Amino acid sequence: MSRLTEDNVRVAHEIISRYPRPRSATIPLLHLAQQQDGYVTNDAIRHIGELVGATSAEVLGTATFYEMFKFEPVGKYLVNICRTMSCALMGGEELMHHAEHRLGIKAGSTTPDGMFTLEHAECQAACTEAPTLQVNYRYRFRVTPETFDALIDDLAAGRLDSEIPAHGTVARIRQHIPAERGVGAVPPEDATNAPSWMTVAEAPK
Amino acid sequence: MTGTTYTHAPGFVAGDRPQIVTARFQYEDSYTLERALATDGYAGLRAALSRSATEVHDEVKAATVLGRGGAGFPAGTKWGLTPAGVWPRYLVVNGDESEPGTYKDRLLMERDPHQLIEGCLIACYAAGLSQCFLYIRGEMALAQERVAAALNEAYAAGYVGRNILGSDFSLDIVLHWGAGAYVVGEETALIESLEGNRGMPRLKPPFFPAAIGLYGKPTIVNNVETMANLPWLMRNGSAAYTAIGSATSPGTRMVAVSGHVKRPGVYEIINGTTTFRDLLYGEEFCGGIRDNNELKAFVPGGGSAPWFLPDQLDLPFEGRLIGAAGSMAGSGAVMVMDDTTDIPNAALTLTRFYAHESCGKCTPCREGGTWLMRILDRVVAGQGTHRDLDQLLEVGATICPGDFPHASSERLGLAAVPFPYKMTTICFVGPSAYTPVHSALTLFRDEFEAKLVKRTFIPVTAVSVSETEAAL
């Protein structure tokens, strides 16, 4: 179940085809695996290695560098509360304190019902709207204890399902290059001529 | 939900100022092709395609479009650094925005993806780049969706792909997205990541991207905001562009002001002439410090920048002047601390960030950053000693030997030490862990010392302190 499904293998091949070298698709394919299973499984790592021409160790090496990839199940909702300077200046730590009490867990853990995982996050690039959090990478701005509680209630009741997909899905819209419009990726060793529109010869530097 | 009403671009504050990159933000549907086309969208591309690639490149050089990512290197000059006759060449657009305090690229991607796409097309046409990769930070779900949708629209309408607008200019723009790592914002780490590897920076030399970049080929790495400037530039020309801003910093730039101000926001300001006083106190900007408190200190250019005091308020937002005064304009992010701020703890929030984000390649950063964080953590927690303060400076000196840049202070009788610093690491993550420690300790040492004389007391048994004292 944890290798990529047939449908996802089709998506994977489309992604790989956009790059001059298949290994460039490693991170997008890890996201695809996480979207499928909620986290990145060992089988998925092996499968991705087969697809991009890398060893499992190389794929695992890449995957473990990046914080968004999880290697064991996390909650349906990953709640990331920012603690970097601008949020800290506006009460980010206090918000985390409240969140830990509300969810009954410490940052870094998951509620027993598997609904929420709470994590500290570093700067989320919304500093003027501090304190901020993201739920499965969807923003909430200027969060107060009251709006945090309302958010948790809404998530638990399924009222935000249309806006916030379960953990694993980041963007819900994918790029698709139509075959008749795309130029196509060429391995760098096969593209050693100047592009057609560069008609004027370059002066040596 | 938040109790705050937002305009269409949450955080962005418009004003009666020239808008080069944010003109479309006023429209609710600013991210659609329909809106772009109704508001001069792709007119800059048409203007570029009507001229030769060399002419377009010269126009960008003449405008001196400074890179908006942090280093401030002129884009037109950068494009000219590729070795002659070596092909293919690539464009990698850096949308991995994660510098503390900074956000503008996220807004530009979410609110006006077509402007960004148009900018990428112009850059690739001018510099002969045969494929473009748009690297968006992993955590920015909405930006990824908006750019993906915009690319799909632009491909369908013939603005991207084969024979663009019927010309012999053909280009694929590939949306790529990361997975959470600050260091990947460094250009060589970005390239490593795009090749499917751990995002660790490469040594320069020899790995200057313009010479040896993606797949070992010449690669131009430009910031999102830099690209977003190009459509306006092509429509209006370099003379109109340089008429805005100062001679050394033309045009506008986006600056995020956060922290203890009355109206935090992202502002498109006139480059090079707007002062920090305008920004923090001006009615058209932040309108003063919250609750009319006193300003204590501010970070002028993102979390990596040495701190400024109220003494520096009259400096304009101009790279060279800020550098001479002991800091950097960086990524255009000002973080403001009022007089209620606990300075050592504020420094810790930044040092912890950089220690956490160290990729581990260079020992001074991997070990030193963590040491700085641990020592600072115990000082803030009231468990520190006087030796710890000296140790912080000693550890910092292993990352950045010699004089470290800092602001001048009339109160402390300090003269400014200009930017930049020396460093023992490949990239700026290590020095950035030290920057807040050095600034805070240099400018507010008394606050650290005050924490050394208090100790938090946790009794081993339930016997209270007063009972213990009574027994004695």
UniProtKB/TrEMBL annotation, chain A:
SUPFAM superfamilies noted in UniProt: Thioredoxin-like
GO molecular function: 2 iron, 2 sulfur cluster binding; metal ion binding; NADH dehydrogenase activity
Needed co-factor(s): [2Fe-2S] cluster
Pfam families listed in its UniProt record: 2Fe-2S_thioredx
Keywords (A to Z) from UniProt: 2Fe-2S, Iron, Iron-sulfur, Metal-binding
NCBIfam families noted in UniProt: nuoE_fam (TIGR01958)
Similarity comment: Belongs to the complex I 24 kDa subunit family.
Listed name of the protein: Unannotated protein
Annotated source species: freshwater metagenome
Organism lineage: unclassified sequences, metagenomes, ecological metagenomes
